[in-house]
Amino acid sequence: MSKPGSNWMENLPEAFKIYRAGREIDEVECIVPDLAGMSRGKAMPVRKFNPQHETHMPVSIFYQTITGRDVEMDIDNQWAEGDLVLKPDMSTAKAVPWAKEPTLQVIHDLYTRDGAPVSIAPRHVLKRVVDLYTKQDWKPVVAPELEFYLIKPNLDPNEPIQAPVGRTGRQGSGNQTYSMSAVDDYGPVIDTIYDFAQDAGLTIESVMQEDGAGQVEINLSHGDPVLLADQVFYFKRIIREAALNHHMFATFMAKPMRDQPGSAMHVHQSVVDMKTGANIFSDPQGNVSEHFMHFIGGCQKYLPQALPLMAPYVNSYRRFETDSNSSAPTNFAWGYDNRATGLRVPNSGPQDRRLENRVVGVDCNPYLAIAVGLACGYLGMMKKIKPGVPAVGELEDDDYAIPTTMDEALTLFEEADDVHQVLGQDFCMIYGEVKREEMRLFHREISPWEREHLLLNV
Predict the structure, then answer these.
(1) Which DSSP letter does residue 104 get?
(2) 365: which of 1, 37, 284, 360 fits an S-S bond (Cβ 3.0–4.6 Å)?
(3) What are the sequence ranges of the domains in the chain?
């Protein structure tokens, strides 16, 4: 009689079986998304992996800044570093296409030793929000759009980031939005991204050149929020590895170059009735529903309080700078087919009616950014919050301006009681403390600007 879980290889996704092509699996990567949305975990020989077997990791992976610095918090026995239990979600099993031998990566969920979900794990935070919709017989649907830069390898952090050299032998230039030749300039990298995505069983809706030099956008198909967050998590890793294969870096910084546009992760959001399959943002006659208006109202009221989850670093706020090289919205106004607003209603039929959040930066943790967008819309529907008047054309006197610095945004976030209630009090406390420590570390640094202009001039 076979042991429990011993036939797990037979149930792997078809895409992995095609990638494997009968070869022996070498290794399994057991990974979890951390607060930044990066993968943490353990790799083990395939003979050691069993979905029924417990793997452990210390809770302190959530107590670190982006620099790796530990953050002291008001937590009982914080540095006793108790183990969390990792349980694989085998539906997330994907190939690691850049590995030399057939390798499997699997996203794990985190639990306490007593079997309770770990409330501070980003994937659980998103699941918590989705569960609130499920209790209303609603199913949220999202579609992310990822912008990123291909750049020359930057080996010295004191040196500015530069666009890469393409097939012409010339360095990339900006202002070539939707240019097919600009995409072709980095064709080998794009081809490798497609190949890696196919091996991993992931689908790309479209690829296009964005405004910046070496800036690319990849759009994903709409679907379940957790599934799409998993895909963004995987795609960031795929894109980085594809770029490295061609002696480039891929960066998801929100604003990597001073004189080039920033990179966003626009998120399209809609909600369907689980019983009927109808989009609840439209009424039976196909007109805008009260649910849609209240969803927008909730986003306008609460998203400014939750901005650190969508713009998580000091660099995120450079994307919002109002200069000629910035097209990022600096508001939470809403409007129909208006890209000057942070909340845009794209042209669509009644069944496809949706709200696009254009404020989110691509440097976000996708689980948290998607969670907070849905959380704020949920609060709006539950509290029946009415939105402001839709904006027409460019905005001048804006009543929905966003915080302009991380310090200001964190102050609002720390006071956002309704948002904390939905996302989880413990998670919000830890997230806020980690971000405060990151800001303290940033403010201690002396920048090249200070050395250049103050060293001999003051």
Answers:
(1) E
(2) 37
(3) 8-118, 128-453
Task: Report pLDDT for 4.
Answer: 45
Q: Give the model confidence (pLDDT) of 273-307 as tens digits.
A: 999 999 999 999 999 999 999 999 999 999 999 99
The 3-class SS string of the chain reads: CCCCCCCHHHHCCHHHHHHHCCCCCCEEEEEEECCCCCEEEEEEEHHHCCCCCCEEEEHHHHCECCCCCECCCCCCCHHHCCEEEEEECHHHCEECCCCCCCEEEEEEEEECCCCCECCCCHHHHHHHHHHHHHHCCEEEEEEEEEEEEEECCCCCCCCCCCCCECCCCCECCCCCCCCHHHHHHCHHHHHHHHHHHHHHCCCCCEEEECCCCCEEEEECCCECHHHHHHHHHHHHHHHHHHHHCCCCEEECCCCCCCCCCCCEEEEEEEEEECCCCCECCECCCCCECHHHHHHHHHHHHHHHHHHHHCCCCHHHHHHHCCCCCCCCCCECCEEECCCCCCEEECCCCHHHCCEEECCCECCCCHHHHHHHHHHHHHHHHHHCCCCCCCCCCCCCCCCCECCCCHHHHHHHHHCCHHHHHHHCHHHHHHHHHHHHHHHHHHHCCCCHHHHHHHCCCC
Q: Which CATH superfamily is domain 128-453 in?
A: Glutamine synthetase/guanido kinase, catalytic domain (3.30.590.10)
145 phi and psi angles, rounded to 5 deg: -125, 120
Whole-number percent of the chain with pLDDT over 90? 81
- Cβ neighbourhood burial of 263 (10 Å; 0-12, 13-18, 19+): buried
Q: How far is CA 371 from the centre of its chain?
A: 10
- Give the model confidence (pLDDT) of 179-207 as tens digits: 566 667 788 999 999 999 999 999 999 98
CATH 3.10.20.70 fits 8-118, yes or no: yes
> Comparing 329 with 433, which gets the higher pLDDT?
433
Give the confidence band of 171 by pLDDT, cuts at 50, 70, 90: low
Question: Directed axis angle between helix 225-244 and helix 122-135, to 10°?
Answer: 150
pLDDT of 387 over the 60 cut? yes
pLDDT, averaged across the chain: 92
pLDDT in tens, 74-112: 888 888 777 899 999 999 999 999 999 999 999 999 999
